[in-house]
Write a structure and sequence with these properties.
mainly alpha, 0% strand
Amino acid sequence: VAAKTSGTEWRAHIEQTKTHETKLRDFLPRTEKQLEAIRDRLSQAKEKITLKENYINKQFDQKKDNFQTLKDEL
């Protein structure tokens, strides 16, 4: 089964592709800035989480050491 296609259909596809390319090029700078802002916020959040994790681990280590000392005394 062969589909009949117009001889100008490929031209329409090329024009549509060019239109999409133009739109993408217009959106790209703003999108890049938005992605960079998201990356920066994620980096800050990760840093905060890391600091809190380290703080909790230090507190836990002290409690663990205290428990081990009490356990050894028994």
